Amino acid sequence: MTKFFTAAVLAGAMTVAGCQMTSDQQMLAGGVIGAGAGLLTASALRANTNWTIATTLAGAAVGTLVARNQQTNECAYYAGRDSRGNDVYDVRPCPR
């Protein structure tokens, strides 16, 4: 429970600070939040050490901002790979 509370507070602080972050800081925050989500998932499923490391790294990769279009205010986030092994990106409005 303590880990969950700590992660929730950290995620909330990063979300509130999101308005004041540079794009590099937003990219880092996305990776940290993604890694935290992967770690929490592995902990909730009581995964062994190897799976915990794998889910943490995968979460960090998935949560990372990879591109930002200033004109349309859209951000692209790495979302993993499809069944053919091609990179997949999630494009959505950037956080304000």
Automatic annotation (TrEMBL):
One Pfam family per UniProt: Rick_17kDa_Anti
Main location: membrane
Molecular function (Gene Ontology), one example: isomerase activity
Membrane-topology descriptor: Lipid-anchor
Keywords: Isomerase, Lipoprotein
Protein name, entry field: 17 kDa surface antigen
A GO cellular-component term linked to this record: cell outer membrane
Organism field: Rhabdonatronobacter sediminivivens
Superkingdom of origin: Bacteria
Glycine zipper 2TM domain segment(s): 29-69
Location in or out of the cell: Cell outer membrane
